[in-house]
Amino acid sequence: MNESPQAIQTEADHRALIEGLLRHLQDAGEQELITTHISSVILAGEYAYKIKKPLDLGFLDFSTLERRRFCCEEELRLNARLAPGIYLGVLPITGTLRQPVLGGDGEPLEYVVRMRRFDQRGVLSNRLDLLDPAVIDTIARRVARFHGEIAQAPAASEYGEPAHLAQPMWDNFTHIRQLVDDAEVTPRLEALEHWTRQRYQALGELLPRRKRDGYIRECHGDLHLGNIALVGAGPLIFDGIEFNPGLRWIDTMSELAFLLMDLQEKGRPELATRALNSYLAETGDYEGVALLRFYQVYRAMVRAKVAAIMASQAVPPAKPDYTAFRAYLALAEGYMRDASPCLMLTRGPSGSGKSTKARDLLGRVPAIWLRSDVERKRLAGLRARDSSGSALDGGIYSAEFTRRTYAHLHALAGEVLAAGYAVLVDATFLDRAQREPFYGLAEELGCPVLVLDLQVPEALLRERVERRAARGGDVSEAGLEVLERQLAGYRPLDDDEREHTLVLIPDDATWVGRVAERCG
User: Fold this and answer.
1) Averaged over 428-444, what is the pLDDT?
2) Where would one find coiled-coil regions in this protein (predicted)?
3) Positive or negative: CA dihedral 515, 516, 518, 520
């Protein structure tokens, strides 16, 4: 398609068009202009209008009108998956720069994505006070289910091939060096690139397996808090990547890493841990944990690059401000540091508060939470809150299925510990035979082990189990009959286990700190 002789060709043209559109829309209602490094968004009345800048940044090409039109159509298609009802259509802009018209029959100057406006005060990057565990759980589960629904990369495509996945990482470093010429920054970039290349080599077997196992999918691609808003009844995820297929046909763990990195950058590491565990409970993708730091460095460097681009676009007399760039650089460096993982085991009968204690602990101690109730059902092909319909000692609660469940938890714990993450295994662990393999695992991997021995009066145990059963909807199916069986066979820990045990009793306000001292 030939370019319209009037088509927007420069950033100066783009700015003139935006000024014209603001005048054209002045009667539509309250206005606001949002500018990013690649687009301008005009909020006017009930609608929002997004116009792409005429740029070629290497990782995106908006340099021609036809490219921008195609990307507008892709933006509409892709964002309908997570934000239905928000993205309304693509319109041509006709008329002139000074007197533009939305729609019309004339030669198009530009194309615009028309959206339904929502309250920008709900965008989470601006409202960290809106973030709480319940919101994070909802977002993480929505992302997990989205990842399970979207298209997988075809086996014959280049998407998901290790070299293709890594190329944006190498391009990032090249682009940043072109943007930031600083003697203090140069060796830091070299160290980050060296670490990334080392990790890329170390992950040589896992990366291609991820594609074979179906984890390379057409993702959102830009999953950070600036693209999530609380609108109406729940979170709205918007503004996925349309301009570069290679940046959205990615490993689902790379997508999650972006959200986790952003939560950590915003000073909410406990919510990053919460999001990770909610996502893993939904997907069971514990193998992908080994990729997290690799992708978190990449995602931090993506944001560093964006910050550097924004700084370089400062209009004189304003001077470039590289504060945000340096903050993301420091965050990426933090992911390179070796971790010292710890293995924690809960121990206690039904109703002793194992899962409640786990949630409390994970707000302070970052760890991967492995729940026997969740993984038992996963092995049976059930969702966490599905009822198995099993009788006592039958179905998924038979001795053989219980053995399989503990073996599965052991395998997962080994995988996660080897990836450098602390693990909290949430199970009853009433028998020494169930605990012993985990002690051996910790010894094999050279990491400390800590048993959290929950001691609760029997009357309170019964009260809790009855209350939970009456409430319904819990992951655990254990009722009073199960509890009585557990209590009848209850045995204290052996003497040689006590040196790596913390006894937890109800109303102990100091226990989280004591665990953090040993496994934090």
Assistant:
1) 97
2) none
3) positive
List alpha helices for 7-114, DSSP H.
11-24, 65-79
- Taking each helix axis from N to C terminus, what angle separates 269-283 and 252-265, rounded to the nearest 10 degrees? 160
**pLDDT of amino acid 135:** 96
CA dist., res. 495 & res. 432, Å (int): 12
pLDDT digits (tens, 9 = 90+) for 152-166: 999 999 999 999 999
Return the C-alpha torsion angle 274, 279, 285, 289, nearest 10. -40
484 burial level (CB within 10 Å; 0-12, 13-18, 19+)? middle
Helix H or strand E segment including 337? none
**Helical segments of 313-425, H only:** 323-335, 354-362, 372-379, 399-418
Residue 194 belongs to what H/E stretch?
Answer: helix 185-202
> Under a CB-based contact definition with an 8 Å cutoff, are residues 242 and 71 in contact?
yes
Which residue in this structure is represented by tokens 């969702």?
383
Cβ-in-10-Å burial (0-12, 13-18, 19+) of 449 comes to: buried
Nearest by Cα to 375 from 339, 338, 419, 412: 412
CB within 8 Å of 75: residues ≥ 6 apart: 50, 87, 113, 240, 242
Closest CA to 212 of 268, 253, 262, 153: 153
- Residue 120 has what DSSP assignment? G
Residues 358-386 have pLDDT tens digits of: 999 999 999 999 999 999 999 999 988 77
Half-sphere exposure of 163 (CA within 13 A, CB side): 2
Q: Which of 261, 457, 253, 476 is nearest to 358 (CA)?
A: 476
CA torsion sign for 135, 140, 143, 148 is: negative
Task: Tell me the domains of the chain and their CATH numbers.
Answer: 11-117 (no CATH), 128-335 (3.90.1200.10), 343-519 (3.40.50.300)
Please state whether beta strands 343-347 and 449-454 pair in parallel, antiparallel, or not at all (unpaired).
parallel
The pair of structure tokens assigned to 520 is 């934090």
Is the pLDDT confidence value at 520 over 80? Answer: no
Q: Are residues 409 and 427 in contact, defined by beta-carbon separation less than 8 angstroms?
A: yes
In the predicted structure, residue 477 carries a pLDDT above the cut 90 = no
pLDDT at 2: 47
Query: Average pLDDT for residues 55-73, to the nearest whole number?
Result: 95
Average pLDDT over residues 170-178: 95
Let me know if 325 is exposed, middle or buried by CB neighbors in 10 A (0-12, 13-18, 19+). buried
Cα separation, 283 vs 214, in Å, equals: 12
